[in-house]
Amino acid sequence: MRLSPDQMIFWQHGFIKLNGTIVFTWALMLALTMGAKLVTGHLSKGLTRSRWQNLLEIVVSGIEKQIEDVGLHQPRRYIGFLGTLFLFVSSASLCTIIPGYEPPTGSLSTTAALALCVFVAVPLFGMKEQGLGGYLKSYIEPTFIMLPFNIISELSRTLALAVRLFGNMMSGAMILSILLTITPFIFPIAMSVLGLLTGMVQAYIFSILAAVYIAAGTRVRKAKPEISTGP
Amino acid sequence: MDSATLIAMTSIITAGLTIALGSIGPALGEGLAVSKALTSLAQQPDAASTITRTLFVGLAMVESVAIYCFVVSMILIFANPFWNHVLTQAAGK
């Protein structure tokens, strides 16, 4: 039984492997980039607009509203990062309706890479907003004793982000392959519908958690912070 | 019993125990969270979007504990390092 698309090898030459994760990730990136390029090639400002432009406007303004709800008041600054995370993870799980495709997020390397992006992005956005000293000072809030705990929480939430997405995607694929051997006709369809829902929820969770972490990192400390963030 | 049998036996039993015990806590927690969310939805239908969003984020947080247990049991069954060690030793003989 395959645990991840890493073990699905298309082409191998020496130690260079072209496995399922890489192929599907690049296919997704190509589809997303080309799609965005094609749609935004001829945007209209008037009342008549193409249906694809309508779709993109709904997606972009929806993501913007969600980011603003979390507590980031200038969502345009962060939509490039958070929106890309959401669109990549959600399209990776939505494409599972295509036969032969396996979600690249079912591999720990992909999810670890995404979580590392969040791990790097939080200090970057924080420093941009509060300056280097201001951001580093947030590590010793409320007292100096909290410094190691703050660092541990930073590391552990990155691990949690990676393993959560990986576990959900992997378990979806695994349940499907187990059910196909036991009850091969109707029941796997119901489970794959559930898998689509789980994929969307996980994409939402991933980007919302990233937004919450960024919001916690960029909040300029005038008063006491009102929301606490978990691991 | 040689060490290979022992390792196989312990891994399988531990994998079952891991997912069995590890799913009890998150199941109880998710049930509590959903019941509280339904209560507050019935009391304040206006705040439905906020409650639902917070509920989903919280559920995913709670559920990740069960997912960790699942990942550990999958590692024990399909990618067990001790089992692989025994296999390479047996192949080396």
Strand content of chain B: under 5%
DSSP E strands of chain A, number? 2
Q: Roughly what percent helix of chain B?
A: over 70%
Radius of gyration of chain A: 20 Å
Main sheet characteristics of chain A: 2 strands, antiparallel
Our count of domains of chain B comes out at 1
Q: Could you say what the CATH topology of chain B is called?
A: F1FO ATP Synthase
- CATH architecture heading of chain B: Up-down Bundle
The CATH superfamily label of chain B reads F1F0 ATP synthase subunit C
What is the C-level CATH assignment of chain B? Mainly Alpha
Helical stretch tally of chain B: 3
Low-confidence stretches of chain A: none
Task: Please summarize the sheet with the most strands of chain B.
Answer: none
Whole-number mean pLDDT of chain A: 85
The percentage helix of chain A is: 55-70%
Give the CA-CA distance, first to last residue of chain B. Answer: 19 Å
Q: What's the β-strand tally of chain B?
A: 0
Biggest interface = A-B, 20 and 15 residues
Q: What is the 3D form of chain B?
A: rod-shaped
Mean pLDDT of chain B: 88
Assembly status: heterodimer
Written description of the protein model:
The complex is a heterodimer of chains A (231) and B (93). Chain A has 231 residues and is mostly helical. Helices cover 69% and strands 4% of the residues of chain A. Chain A has helices spanning 20-40, 51-70, 75-94, 108-137, 147-182, 187-218, and strands spanning 9-13, 16-19. In chain A, strands 1-2 form a two-stranded antiparallel ribbon. In chain A, helix 1 packs across helix 3 (75-94) and helix 2 crosses helix 3 (75-94). The longest helix of chain A is centred in the last third of the chain and has 36 residues, at 147-182. Chain B is mainly alpha-helical. Chain B has a single domain, classed as F1FO ATP Synthase (Up-down Bundle), CATH 1.20.20. Chain B is 90% helix and 0% strand. Chain B has three helices and no strands. In chain B, helix 1 packs antiparallel against helix 2 and helix 1 runs antiparallel to helix 3 (81-92). Classes of the chains: A mainly alpha (231), B mainly alpha (93). The A-B interface holds A 1, 3, 69, 160, 163-164, 166-168, 170-171, 174, 201-202, 204-205, 208-209, 212, 230 and B 50, 53, 56-57, 60-61, 63-64, 67-68, 70-71, 74, 78-79.
